[in-house]
Specification:
Elements (H helix, E strand, L loop, with lengths): L1 H15 L15 E4 L2 E4 L4 E3 L34 E2 L5 H10 L3 H7 L2 E6 L5 H11 L6 E3 L5 E3 L6 E2 L9 E6 L9 H6 E3 L5 E3 L25 E5 L2 E5 L4 H17 L22 H6 L2 E4 L16 H13 L1
Parallel strand pairs: 3-7, 5-9, 5-14, 6-9
Antiparallel strand pairs: 1-2, 4-8, 6-7, 10-11, 12-13
Helix pairs in contact: 6-8
């Protein structure tokens, strides 16, 4: 009788789990991000560090030169890691020490999403330079075709935004950057027969890593954008429509997973994005999307061409949908 009862209980558990049996393989849709060990759908392609051809920032050895360990972190001699522990208020530090990084604990800490461009041109080159050569890290990379790469669980303190690292996550968007003149831009862009510019990856980049075969990256706007960031007059081509679409979905997913990341950006009295570094008190109070330029005066990314309203409108529409 007892054996029959145990069998019945096991059958109930199997049914409750959707008929999954021990050893059954659970599939992914391929659009998930990982937040404190939990997966959240984004509705756009995501390659995790766990996946084939993913970029794993947990490895203590270089991705492109696996025989070599990572360069030592000056702040922690002998430590080959590309990431560290978030510095926390005492009460939250105690909770994390007892429970680990639960989703609820992470929601108490992370409320900023920092937008960068990588000055590398592709996600593959970004990982090579930023994470392999320099020993830095960022949770997300966004390639020119809209593919998102996640390199770390968001519970980790990635090294991408200085003082904002403890309470932020970040994304490096594949883009060669903004400049005072067009010399660099002329090397990375050409003009098609229709007069629209397109990205021309350099010949030395024999393997681009771009997942979409024969992808032609065109800026979302035809014209060269001019703008002022942290006192510098800069020129920049826009990001690709594929990048904007993916970033809007990623932003929406982050907002759902970590609601402290509000769907907004720092605005001036005219309602437009603030084009200078934020005063310390304003940065401390802000929750939402930030440019790297809002954190430090030495930075200008994601540059004057970045369309903040396009991302926010897309993210809000995704959340409502």
């Amino acid at each position: 009788m007892r054996s029959a009862c145990l069998m019945s209980a096991a059958a109930v558990l199997v049914l409750a789990a959707g008929c999954a049996l021990p050893g059954d393989r659970l599939g992914r849709r391929g659009d998930e991000i990982v937040v404190a060990g939990q997966m959240f759908h984004t509705g756009t392609p995501v390659v995790l560090w766990l996946d084939p051809r993913g970029y794993d920032a947990y490895r203590a050895r270089r991705h492109f030169e696996p025989a070599q360990t990572m360069p030592a972190n000056p702040a922690s001699p002998g430590d080959p890691n590309r990431y560290g522990a978030r510095r926390l208020p005492a009460d939250l530090a105690g909770a994390v020490a007892r429970e680990g990084w639960t989703l609820e604990n992470l929601r108490r800490q992370v409320d900023q999403f920092v937008i960068h461009y990588d000055v590398c041109g592709t996600a593959r080159q970004c990982f090579r330079i930023l994470q392999d050569a320099r020993g830095l890290s960022v949770p997300f990379m966004l390639d020119i075709d809209g593919t998102i790469y996640q390199t770390l669980d968001l519970k980790e303190r990635a090294w991408h935004a200085g003082q904002a690292n403890d309470r932020s996550v970040g994304v490096e968007i594949a883009h060669i950057g903004a400049y005072r003149d067009t010399r660099v831009l002329d090397e990375w862009y050409a003009t098609g027969p229709d007069g629209w510019p397109y990205i021309t990856l350099p010949s030395w980049m024999r393997e681009t890593g771009v997942r979409t075969p024969f992808f032609i990256g065109r800026p979302a706007r035809r014209e060269l954008i001019r703008g002022r960031i942290n006192g510098q007059e800069l020129l920049q081509y826009d990001f690709t429509p594929e990048q904007y679409a993916a970033l809007a979905r990623l932003t929406a997913a982050l907002h759902r997973a970590l609601p402290g990341i509000r769907l907004d950006y720092p605005r001036g009295p005219d309602g437009r994005v603030r084009d200078e570094v934020l005063p310390e008190a304003d940065l401390a109070a802000f929750q939402g999307l930030l440019g790297h330029w809002h954190i430090t005066r030495q930075k200008v990314d994601p540059g004057p061409a970045f369309d903040w309203d396009r991302v926010i409108r897309g993210a809000r529409a995704s959340v409502l949908f």
